[in-house]
Amino acid sequence: MAKNITFSLGNIALIDKIDAETDFSESVFGNIGGRSGSFIPAVKLLISNKLNQSVSINKILDFTPAEQLEIFGFEETISNRSLYRVLKRLGDNQPVVLE
Fold this sequence. Notes:
Elements: H1 10-22, H2 24-33, H3 39-51, H4 60-63, H5 66-72, H6 80-92, H7 94-98
Helix pairs in contact: 2-3, 3-6
């Protein structure tokens, strides 16, 4: 029997609505992400985590179903190490993000 997967769509809908109306992700994080194809989806995952579950970064992937990762735009699996790299890049570019 197939396992049922449930997760909150409210935070995902909020992130998508803001992104669609203002092009927030691309305008703020587009230049920071460089060539990484998973940078913006990872930022969306971090924002979603803070809005919904607020678990530590090393536990995000334990609490996030693969279906939710697909909704954010991940084309392949992501590791905790990659999430930490995204967080470091955001920290390094903090003035740009806050502006």
